[in-house]
Amino acid sequence: MVALGELPPIDAAIHADTTHERADTYTFAARQTPWLEERGVKVVKVQAISKVSAVDEYGGCMIPAYIDSKGTFSRQCTSIWKRAPIRRWLQANRDKHPVELWLGISTDEAARMKPSDVQYITHRWPLI
């Protein structure tokens, strides 16, 4: 929507590459990244520092597991593979300025809208 002028310009679109996505996700990124950049949207890809397994040292699963209609168990994957690499990039590039972080949560996911747990980041949900 930024590339089409429907939302104001942003400093960067951050793709948190878990290295565990479906092939279609990488095909989409390979096609859309040049399209976005041709329209002035800088795309940054970040990854976790170390290779992280989807199974922890105790044999536990680190992917989201769903509990009927009650939601999910713990979401370590989000923290390790997405949140930490994004925050590492933000810290390296924000020059001590506050950050407005746009999250692509749609109205059917509105329950996921939560304030940031760090002071330098304010969350914004431009699709809602």
What characteristics describe this protein?
4 strands; two-stranded parallel ribbon; two-stranded parallel sheet; 27% helix
Describe the fold and architecture:
The chain has two helices and four strands, in the order βαβαββ. The two termini are 13 Å apart. The radius of gyration is 16 Å and the shape is globular. It has a domain at 98-128. The protein is an alpha/beta fold and 128 residues long. Strand 1, helix 1 and strand 2 form a beta-alpha-beta unit. It has a two-stranded parallel ribbon with strand order 1-2. It has a two-stranded parallel sheet with strand order 3-4.
Beta-strand percentage?
5-15%
- Give helix % range: 25-40%
| CA gyration radius, whole angstroms | 16 Å
Element-level helix/strand string: EHEHEE
Low-confidence region ranges: none
The backbone outline, from C-alpha atoms, is globular
Q: What class do helices, strands and sheet pairing give?
A: alpha/beta
Major β-sheet strand ordering: 1-2
Mean pLDDT: 86
Can you count the beta strands? 4
Describe the main β-sheet briefly: 2 strands, parallel
Taking the alpha carbons of the first and last residues, their distance comes to 13 Å
Total number of helices: 2
